[in-house]
Amino acid sequence: MENEKTYLQNLILNRRIVRNYIESEETYPDLSDVPKLTIKIPTAGFSRGIEIISVENKDSIQKLAIYANEKTYIEKGFGKWISNSKAIFLILINEAAYHERYKMMDKKNETNSKNWSVPYWYVDAGAAMMNCMLLIDETGLKSGFLGSHNMEVLKIKSFLKIPKNIEILGFVTAGVEDSTKNIKKEKINRKKIVHKELYEN
Ligand SMILES: Cc1cc2nc3c(=O)[nH]c(=O)nc-3n(C[C@H](O)[C@H](O)[C@H](O)COP(=O)(O)O)c2cc1C
Fold first, then answer.
1. Which domains are present in the chain?
2. What pLDDT digit, counting tens, does each position of 5-28 carry?
């Protein structure tokens, strides 16, 4: 059929950030392939500066919920999210890997990586984040994302033994959606962002 969507189009169209998970004892899909497929991304210069930690241990997830200040969200009336996750994937950024790579012989005549107009380590981290969310949604679980600006990053690094120089982009979460808690969001910022041929408002 002419307008039939492909599998990938449907996966992308149906994905949204889910922030309410139920506590479910049911066995959940195997997520063991998610980490390595998440970081199957192109990285600038093949720097390979994006890493990932998966956390499925229940006690560790409770600890991460504390460090993500979940309590303050629950006090505001939001449902459980991080603490009811089945798995949390932390996307990690090793900026130094990019600078190391771009100091090498074949790259040394290029713009210094410290002066890039767009820091490619964040570009690559975003690519990994998207892979991760789509891989989770493909299993039937629902994905969410909590940025590290809302977390106690130093405590998380110490807890998971993440080196100090590695940045945490955030948590990609996987869980079973609590659809009773679905909050209707205001439609904000619906300006034109897809342009064709010329940039037009
Ligand atoms: C870089 C980045 C950081 C985000 N940080 C948060 C966050 O800290 N907490 C949160 O609830 N959502 C966060 N989000 C989710 C956005 O708010 C989300 O993309 C937006 O609500 C649209 O969601 P949709 O995918 O459901 O359309 C973040 C998204 C991105 C891309």
1. 14-20+29-179 (3.40.109.10)
2. 999 999 999 999 999 999 988 899
State mean pLDDT over 35-43. Answer: 98
Say what the pTM is.
0.93
Cα gap 144→77, rounded to integer Å: 18
In this structure, what are the phi and psi dihedrals at residue 51, rounded to the nearest 5 degrees?
-125, 175
Residues linked to residue 165 through DSSP beta bridges, in sequence order = none
Q: Which of 133, 142, 145, 183 to mutate to test the pocket of ligand 1 (most atoms within 8 A of CB)?
A: 145
Of 118, 128, 112, 138, the C-alpha closest to 168 is: 128
Distance CA 49, CA 124 (A): 8
Residue-level pLDDT at 2: 66
Question: In Å, how far from its chain's centre is CA 188?
Answer: 22
Collapsing DSSP to helix, strand or coil, 190 comes out as coil
